[in-house]
Amino acid sequence: MSDSAKPPQSASGSPVPKVEGEISDRAWLIGCVAILLVAAFLRLYDLALVPFHHDEGVNGNFLVSLVRDGRYHYDPANYHGPTLYYFSAFFPWILRFLFGPAAQNTYGLTTVTVRLVPAFFGLATIGLVLCLRRRLGSVGVLAAAALLAISPGAVYLSRYFIHETLFVFFTLGVVVGALRFYEEAQPVYLVLAAASAALLFATKLDPSHHLHRSGGKIQTIPKITGRRSRPRSDPIPSDHHHHLSDPPLAPPPPRPRPSPSPLRPR
Question: Does this model's pTM top 0.90?
Answer without folding.
Answer: no
